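Comment thread on ticket #2218

A.B. wrote:
> Attaching the input chain for the structure job we discussed in standup.
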Amino acid sequence: MSDALADDWEEIVSECEKEVLSSANKGKYKYFFDASNHSMKTTEKVATSLKALLDDVLIIVSPRGIEINWETPE
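C.D. wrote:
> Ran it. Output below, let me know if you need it in another format.
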């Protein structure tokens, strides 16, 4: 696996955003994107872009992937 930014990172962001919105509409409170086949540079770029798009969410980045969590504390 290369350390380079994937050429399709913008498509990944778009797909993740759709999945997050779909999950939220189904009443779920988190979404996990498996980034194990992507470089950390791509994973970080996708996470940063999602944070900018989705705003008030918690994003946890690891080498395994990105967890997007929007659960409201009780």
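A.B. wrote:
> Thanks. Noting for the ticket: The CA atoms of residues 27 and 58 lie 17 Å apart.
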